[in-house]
Every structure is written in C-alpha cells, then in structure tokens.
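Take a specimen:
=====
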Amino acid sequence: MNNNLLPLGTRDEFGQRAVVKEHLISVIENSISTRGFSKISTPLLEKQAVFEPYQLGNYQLYRLLDQEGETIVLRPDMTLPIARFLSSTNVSLPQKFWYLGDIFRISRKLSGSYNELTQAGIELVGYPSIKAEFECLVLVNQLSQKLLDEPIELELGMADFAEVVLSQVTSNEELKKTVAQALFDKQIPKYEQLIAQFKDKSEYQFLLQWPRLFGKPEKIFKELKKFDLSSKVQQRIKKLQEVVSWAKKNLLNQTFSIDLSSQAPQQYYTGLTFRGFSKAGSGYLFSGGRYDKLLANFQDVSESAVGMGINIDLITDLVVNKTKPKKKQLIYFKTNQWQEAESLLKGTPGGILSLSDNLNNAQIEAKKLNATLIDMTEGEFIG
C-alpha cells in the first residue's frame, strides 16, 4: 500500500526543524510589519494565464482542471498573483505589501530540490524612486543579521544588461537569446564560438571579457573603464555605482559583489537585481529587484515595482544545521503531583512532562527522547 507515501518533492515537518522554521517566520513577520508593510494573502490556486510572464527554467507547473474545464495551477510564484490582485481592485498606489505562503514548482527528477517551498517577501508598488531598492537592501541586511550567525553576500546585477549590450552588435532576436543563454549558463566555449562573428565590432573585446566580469565592485568598475561602451550600457553601470556608493555609507557591514553575466530571476524584471547568499549553503536566501512592467500582463498601464523574495526553507536548513539541540529533561511524576510538576517544568530548560503510567515506561520514554529523567516519585511505583 502506498497511501502513506508523500508526493515527490514534498516533506513533513516536525520537531526541531518545525520549531526553528516557525521562529524564523515570526522574526520575518515582525521585522517587515514594523516598517509599515500591509499583509496580503492570495489563493493557492490561480488561473494559468496569470503566470504567462513566469520564467520556468528547470521547473514545471502543477496543472489542474476546474469544474468548467479551465486550466488552473498551484502558484509557482507570489509576485504575479499580487499583480493580478492589483489589476482587479481599486487599491490606491503607492503601497507596500508583504506576503507569506507556499509555492509549488515541479523540479527536475533527481535534482534533490523540493517541489513545495515556503516563501516570504515584499512588494513595493508605485515607487519609481531608487529608494524602493534601498528599502529592500536594508531589509535584507537587517534580516540576515537577525536570522543568521554569519554575514551574507549581496550580488548585484542589471536585468536588461545583456539585452542592451547584445543589441549593440546584432538585431537578430534569436541570436541574442542564444548568446545570452550561453553566457548565463557559463558555457564559455559555446559563448566564445558564438561571439566570434562579432570580431569586427568595437564591442568585441568587451564581449570576450564579459563572462569574467563578476566579483568585488571596485575591481569590476575598474575593468569596465578599459572599454568604450555605449551610453545605454554606461547608464546601467552608473546605476550600479550609485547603489554601491549608497551601501558603503548606509550598510557598513554588508558585503557586495557585481555579476554582469547573471540572468534576471524572472523575465519580467527590468532594472537592478540582487541576490543574497551564504557561503555556508547553496542557493539564494534572498532574491529580488525592480520590475516596472509588473501589471503589463493584466492591464494597459504598468506600474513601477520593486520586490524581494525570502527562501525560508534554505534559511531554516542553515540554522538547523548550526543549532545544537537542547538537552531534554523528562519529568516523571504522580498524578497528585501535577501542580509541583508544572512548577518544575517552568524552571527546567528543555523540560517535558512524562505521561507514562510507571517508572519503567518513563525510563524507556527518556531513552527514546535522549532525555535526562527527573523522577519526582523517587522510584515509587504508580499503578
């Protein structure tokens, strides 16, 4: 019988991991809500059309049919449902939202990834000012200090950097897409073979160096001075310089890097992107950026928007792996000692009341829990 087996890519959570995860969620909720963000919750099920701008990558969607035969999906993303909400309501903008919920993405077989993930995040809608990006970076910095024992590194990029650069050397959309994907995937031999056709272009030397333009901001900005780049490319470099300059003054303990050959988290991103990662674990703990065409898929008029997602499961894994479990202490007592046992429980770190009906079972219980047994009955039999 397989009725006790979970679907692939899901898991039950209990014990220490469940406790740690719940604590992290409460810290995130308090940190965000105290900055004036309004909570928003959207349905787990959405129409498939909501996610047309969603970049699947190595994932697939969970698809179902509703009672009318229309395709609906388990949400793989939290940003686009909020865009759908805004397009169908008269909520005045600008607004700051925050959300918390599970998303579902079918990952490649044997990838080791879970298909169900818990994500929190923020959406700042109607703010064209760079202050919106700075608000996200401040929150990343604050949350990483509260949730983790070690600093994270924030990787900065520009969502449309590849499009702007490649538009200088070709108008062939398919070719641009192929070159960019080879660059993003770090397939250097394929990339160099593709750009060989641009040897006569003034941008060729930059194209050769492009895959290696990642690292400390000072180093990258120095390298970029060697190339004669178009005004559109220079505008994006200046934007990154502005962000780094601001961060040096306001986020003194935050480490930054630049990656000019990274792919935007989603295809609806339009400007600055940022990702936060820890050297102790794989994957991005924080990810976000600007997407000023947020509502373009739902209405004629777009809105400026900046958002950030928080991978709660990855952060939980990091914290659990570093947390030493507290030594449990099992309190065995007689029924008429309940009040005394409650008092002892309050003053005992890691205390647990034993509900066993005799000392022998309490000893077995303590062994299973790897706990120290506190016997309030002094060995007296209870039956």
